[in-house]
Amino acid sequence: MLTVYTDAHRLHAGRAELYNGTITPCFEKPERADMVLARVRDSALGEVRAPKDHGLAPVLAVHDEGYVRFWETAWQRWSEGGRDWDALPKMWQVRRLRATIPDHVEGQLCYYSMDAGTPLTAGTWQAITGAANVAVTAADHLLSGAKSAFALTRPPGHHAARDYCGGYCYFNNAAIAAERLRAGGAHRVALLDVDYHHGNGTQDIFYQRDDVLFLSIHGDPRTEYPFFLGHADETGEGAGLGYNANFPLAAGSSVDAWFAALDAACKRIEAYGADALVISLGVDTYEGDPISRFSLAHDDFLRIGQRLARLGLPTQFCFEGGYAVEPIGVNAVNVLQGFEL
Ligand code: SP5
Ligand code: ZN
């Protein structure tokens, strides 16, 4: 399987996040992707290729223009005031506050975010445009006839909606890939999110569309991040009604329950008649993950890949979450190797 990867992700290294009321080092850090790349190489998964530069058109196909342009100049505007520390949003336009876009860069960061998990750093723009290029290059590989591709994207993307960031995510790499597959001739794309957290951003982007079926298996938002989306009764709207499927599972659910949800999701994908599949591949479902509460073991990740392969679809994997850094490569690459068994 081809892996698409760029070192540009390393330019995005946030200094801190707020966790349990404490400022702690970011869970989402460059070592995550470095470990996955090392495992890709050690396991001889296949060629590792740099992305092509596709410019902003594929990003603008799923994101709001003002949102994209904000990121393009945000660091320059933040740092020209003499600030050399990351910017973090810390205020949100909640109920009854006006949805006006402020002029100040800090106000705009708040306007365009849903939480404080998205530091703006000197290299954020290079990293997020690099990740988008990785996703598009992998999609183009499928469009040229390949059976599978791994987009080793960092930072992750699935919490990023059309016009907001959050949960370590800026541009929605998997959504960008799905849109690219559609534009390139796939009539129906299924996008299955197996990260521990609900893919609220991806759901937002495709909620009113029937040409991309979004499915997500995740910790129940009644107790788990991102709290405000991911319930089973969110099934799409307008033309998209019936094309959004959430499989929330109580935190602490068994591995058997998780695989039952995977089987149900796969059956939905079959019934849909997808001609391409995108997987938002988070491995924070791992039993040793520091911020999540499912209990998949190393071998379970092989089983995920095997089950997905049975769908028989051209499949692109986009890397998302996973915060147990030492085993992150084994877990992610096990899915890919299971797919190829
Ligand atoms: C891409 C991705 O996986 N983003 C995840 C963002 C999660 N951010 C907030 C996590 C809060 C977890 N709180 C757990 C408390 C356990 N004591
Ligand atoms: Zn996650």
From TrEMBL:
Superkingdom, natural source: Bacteria
Biological process per Gene Ontology, one example term: epigenetic regulation of gene expression
Keyword Manganese annotated: no
Molecular-function annotations in GO: histone deacetylase activity; hydrolase activity; metal ion binding
Keyword Iron: no
Family in the record: Belongs to the histone deacetylase family.
Annotated protein name in UniProt: Histone deacetylase family protein
Species assigned in the record: Crenobacter intestini
